[in-house]
Amino acid sequence: MEIPMIDLSELGGENRSKTLAILHHACEKWGCFKNHGVDPEPMKKVKRFVNTHYEENLKATFYSNIEDFLNLSNDSGAVMDEYIAQVIKLVKKLSGLICENLGLDKDHIERAFSGRNRPSMGMKVAKYPECPYTKRLWGLWEHINAGGIIVMLQDDRVSGLEFLHEGQWVPILRSNYASICVNTGDQIEVVTNRQYKSVLHHVMAEKNGCWLSVATFYNPMDDAIILPATKLLYPGKYAFGDYSHAATKFQGKELRLESMRKLMSNGCSGAA
């Protein structure tokens, strides 16, 4: 079992509808996916830079915010700036595609996350040391991300990240330079009225090498007010008379609820 793979380069051609359907399935059933079709060079450069910087400056540290990377040379700063610009472009594209799949305005998530300012972007880098006690220790305990969209650039030599899917832990296999992992957090689940899900994940301890991750977080601002998109409220507001007459009691609730959704979409419910 492997998590879904999205090829963003297919969006501009005849496979656009198929690609959007794969993205919808990944967000709805998995809460995570791998994607390629983005420029591999910035990813290659930033992995090399972070590995070198950790060995020289942060070897005793488990993880660090990008702001802790002090005294960067102009070349190193340019490497990070190039990668961050690519990630910002990616998350804006993904948030727009998520909105498109759900029938929302293309910028709905961006506006929902904005508060007084634009959505928050943050980055953490981590290097998990190799560990001989893989049966007794975790690299990072299982958790769900509280934020919005998380873009994970991970090691191409050592694997460690796993996502929970239908009761089974699914590993993210070693990544080549052209593939990154994306998962959705709690705020996407809320905005989409739980149509899309946040997902439990953890990092396994690894005895055959250190595992590198560079995680970028596209989150709401602290003052953003988060609520489900009105279009996605279901069944929403309706008159009980409409509901009770939508079907017989022997036909079950699903037919009634579907009838309410149709009434709401047509603006015909008798609810005040």
Automatic annotation (TrEMBL):
PANTHER family: OXOGLUTARATE/IRON-DEPENDENT DIOXYGENASE
Pfam families: 2OG-FeII_Oxy (PF03171), DIOX_N (PF14226)
Residue span, Isopenicillin N synthase-like Fe(2+) 2OG dioxygenase domain: 123-220
Entry superkingdom: Eukaryota
Residue span(s) of domain Non-haem dioxygenase N-terminal: 3-53
GO molecular function: metal ion binding
Protein name according to UniProt: Fe2OG dioxygenase domain-containing protein
Keywords, alphabetical: Iron, Metal-binding
Cited InterPro entries: DIOX_N (IPR026992), IPNS-like_FE2OG_OXY (IPR044861), IPNS-like_sf (IPR027443), Plant_2OG-oxidoreductases (IPR050295)
